[in-house]
Design brief:
Layout: E1 4-9, H1 17-22, E2 35-36, H2 50-54, E3 57-58, E4 76-82, E5 87-93, E6 117-121, E7 130-135, E8 141-147, E9 150-152, E10 159-160
Length: 171
């Protein structure tokens, strides 16, 4: 995504890294040092790319919405990397009841009734404002700018996402 490239895979899915980490007390946050690559990963929703094999990853997230700060029932793994021009995030979200995955082909910014993940980027490092990049299991995007306690969905950031629910899990 020419500002942020994302890979999204549900069960292999992507989006809730920093907002999930933010649900933990600030003192537990550690700096995230992404993997530097000269070759960008293929953005196809499949996490078999060499970049993801080398990239660091995080687990142990907390819920954000509708219940804030609760341990997640299912595991989510987030990988992160960068190159000269882009940041890359890949999410692998597990679900013991894949038939309950809610995802629709919908218009941009109209996915919050689906299952989704979100990456919050505190670009000013002020813990007060951020850019939020949402994605549902099919890769449909939403994005917003949060500042002064208000979320504004009128922005449209240029970024790429792909979502995939593996074939064996299809309903």
């Amino acid at each position: 995504m020419n500002i942020i490239k994302n890979i999204y895979t549900f069960f292999i899915i992507w989006i809730l890294l920093l907002s999930s980490l933010a649900a933990a007390p600030q003192k537990h946050l550690k700096p995230l040092i992404p993997y530097k690559t000269d070759t960008p990963p293929v953005i196809d929703g499949v996490l078999d790319d060499q970049v993801w094999n080398k990239a660091p990853h995080e687990t142990g997230f907390k819920t954000w919405y509708p219940d804030y700060g609760i341990n997640m029932v299912e595991n989510t793994i987030v990988y992160y990397a960068y190159d000269r021009e882009n940041l890359y995030f890949a999410y692998r979200c597990f679900d013991s009841r894949p038939e309950k995955i809610k995802s629709s082909v919908n218009s941009r910014d109209n996915i919050l009734s689906d299952d989704w993940i979100c990456i919050n980027l505190d670009t000013f490092n002020d813990h007060q404002s951020l850019y939020a990049l949402y994605c549902n299991p099919l890769g449909i995007q939403g994005d917003s700018r949060f500042e002064g306690g208000k979320e504004d969905f009128s922005i449209d950031v240029v970024w790429y996402s792909v979502g995939q629910i593996p074939e064996k899990l299809n309903r």
